[in-house]
Amino acid sequence: MSTGEPNATSNRRTIVAVFLAGISVFLVLYETQGLIPAIREAYSIDTPTASLTVSATNVAMACFLIPFSLLASRIGHARQIVGGVILAAVLALILPFTPNPELLITVRFLQGVAIASVPATAMAYLSLRLPPSALPGAIGVYIAGNTIGGLCSRLLTGLAAEVLGWHGGLAFTAAVALAIGLIVVWLLRRDMARSDTTPSATAQSDTTPSDTAQSDTASPPRRIPSGLWGIYLTGFLCMIVFGGSFTMLGSRLQQDPWNLSEGTVALFFLIYLVGTVVTTYYGRLALTFTRRRLTLIGMVTAIIGACLTLVDSLPLIIIGMSLLTGGFFLGHTGASAAASTARPGVDTTRSSAIYLTVYYLGTSLGAWLSAVLFTDFAWPGVVGMCLTSLVAVIVLTLVGFRQRQ
């Protein structure tokens, strides 16, 4: 369906809107993570209860990704993205005024529900609105937005709380998220006024009739192919590595021989910016290398990085975590794009949601398993978990490739 304007302009607006939507919702996703001590003292609760302000949001996301993926085709992908962005920001504005921890945790759970509507829809929306040649790069830009939002969620809220207190920190982050959300509304205003389940004129002009037949609405969805489950497992294993390593990195750095402060340790999240660079340029890399090759390069890079972190040297740990982060995002971005690519008889929105559900399960397992291993074997136990998962991805990638020959 033509937008009545230059196709290139329409494509850019779509990509920028989804990029900003990712920033907005991920900006409020982790906003209480660095404030758990302050929340614990304010409500006179224990640390596990305070930590529910983080876990409740992630649990809600995992529960509602697939339902929202099914709802998107009924209410419209653009409308669902806009609704999730605005609702998540409005709920964030309520957080500083919650009088008790029960209400605070409830609002955080509802935030997770609202946030889920965006990742459940965004990648499939891009696949519907953009030509196939532009999709890998666009998804890389979207994931970069998620990375920026996740990074700023931790840093921005914490820095604002230093000046305004924890209530003010939450309010400041919410205001920023709402401002970004209003920009998303403006960028998607035309798409909200029409059905967006039909590929745009640009996408149609860049596809053959057989390509068009691969859209979400072309044929009834059937059982997920085994190849897609391999892609989902890739994301799961990659997130075990990424989530687990960063979860326990702070614990390692706050022990001998460094004994760094919590504020200094928080600066290590700036390593996430490596992922922003990798995802932004993934589209260009995909023009030269296949997804299989990029995944293998990413896993080998991450293995080298994980091994470097075994050395008790801060510069080598920074380099190692940077390599691990870059390698992770090479694997994750490729798997995300593959999960969202149109296939005959496969609903891309549903496929994207399944991928993300499995992906966030990897986050939970990685965080828990890394804590267990760190307790018993210190940092080498965490690295062992990472190496096992990374090698598993390499084997999975090679076996999947041979099966397609």
Secondary structure layout plus pairing:
Elements (H helix, E strand, L loop, with lengths): L6 H23 L6 H8 L3 H29 L1 H18 L6 H16 L5 H8 L5 H53 L1 H4 L8 H5 L3 H4 L13 H28 L8 H5 L5 H9 L1 H7 L2 H18 L5 H27 L7 H56 L2
Helix pairs in contact: 1-4, 1-5, 1-7, 2-3, 3-4, 3-5, 3-17, 4-5, 4-7, 6-7, 6-17, 7-13, 7-14, 7-16, 11-16, 11-17, 13-16, 15-16, 15-17, 16-17
Rg over CA atoms, rounded to whole Å, is 21 Å
List unreliable stretches of 5+ residues: 1-6, 197-221
Q: Give the H and E element order.
A: HHHHHHHHHHHHHHHHH
Mean pLDDT: 82
How far apart the termini lie comes to: 37 Å
Q: Quaternary state, please? A: single chain
Main sheet, how many strands, which sense, barrel?
A: none
Q: Please, could you describe this protein's structure?
A:
With 405 residues, the chain is mainly alpha-helical. Helices cover 79% and strands 0% of the residues. It has helices at 7-29, 36-43, 47-75, 77-94, 101-116, 122-129, 135-187, 189-192, 201-205, 209-212, 226-253, 262-266, 272-280, 282-288, 291-308, 314-340, 348-403. Helix 7 crosses helix 16 (314-340). The longest helix has 56 residues, at 348-403. The protein is globular.
